[in-house]
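Hi there, hope your week has been kind to you so far. No rush at all, and the record is pasted right below.
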Amino acid sequence: MSKAVIYVVIVAALLSLSCTQERTSEVTPRALVNGLENELERLDRACRLEMWKRFVHGGIDSLEYYRMLRGDLFMNDSLWSEIKTSRLSVDDERLARKLDLLYWRFLLERIERQPSLRRLTDSLRAILDSDSRRAGYRINEGIFEAMAGAVRYRNQAARESGFNSYYTLHMQALALETAWADDLLAALERRLIGQQFAPTAFPDSLMAADRQLAAVKSIFRNIGFDLARLPIYPAAVEKTSMVPAARTLVIHCPDDVRILHDLQDGSGSFKALFEAVGKAVYFTQTAEDDYLFVAPTPDFWWLVGSTIFGGLIDDSSVSGAFTLVSGPIGRDLTAMESETIRSKFVMAAFEKIIYTEPYGGFRDKYDKISGAIGRPAESGERLSRSEMYHLVFDPLYYLDHLMAEAMAAQLLAFYQRQFGPDFEPGDPAAFLAADVFPSNNRYDRGQVLLTVTGENFTPDYFIARLPVSSPSPE
């Protein structure tokens, strides 16, 4: 049977379920959701398996074929219309949540699959892939103007969908208040002005690529998660241009989670691996059976759960792990050190500005943000290939990560108020398994935050966890 015939059968079956039965809030929307949920699970799993085969085994694969089927599903106008109509006609809370998840995933996917935007991002991908050995991209290079085109297409699609910008759409899709992001960026900017941070604690020479996986295993064992006893399967791949340096593939939640890694010496690679393992651990702790509630998209649902691991380690536990000696569990966010703090703020604020202010003048916008925190731009300053990749293909990636780290800090503060600052190894695992991990996509992160901590989102805990600094010399 040809792929075209297969697809027609799938769509016809889904539409027949949703259109031929009596239209009630209990029947038609449920049939539509069940059909789409099953098909998305099948196609998502097939894509991840094919990606695993491509990187680990090489040779001919069917990845593009399954990506095409999944793309056709998202771009089917009849299905999209059914989702929007059904979303307005259900009272059942669980079903309504699934329709919301379908609505936002379809909307975001349909925007990224616009022919004009797809052609532009494909050309940018070709540039980045062909230049994989470059040290970075000057901020005023033409590639930034091409990126402005991608921003313009996304904003135009957002306005056509009833939002004033892609930034607003993106935040609503993740059930995040734009005011939360504004408060976080404003608080972080105030914290960074006139501050001088100690040099990063970990030189690249310490974090040798061939020791990173063992170090991460040691760190997670101290927290209470023995990776050898979890269904997590890492595999090294041949040297590639893969971004990031480690990638989590959720084949079947919670019993088959795999990690591809192409590690390099240095903290960037280590942090990518640490995040990938955190994501993998998160998905092995699920308490949901329904695919839409455990699907690893959109990314933000798992991001808070995996980011929280960074708050359970300190410098000594990391350095100890690299000598394969168990280090103590600490309270500092390892990722939030020295220049990394400034870079994260600059990139997140830059993302927000390019989606909410007039197009063009990227260099001036970047300089303005850097200058606001006393980080003057340097002549010929460059962004890394990884930074460029996320700006082009993962809109608002850095802002999402900052928001996740702020939520993780708030959850950790609650934990320490309840159980004390000097918790024993293994205790965090019990807290996470009981209060953070089980919800997955069933509830949005803001709702989980309020339920667990009794507080709405605040950036205060995140700001309080930043390293102590001293005024910059005048």
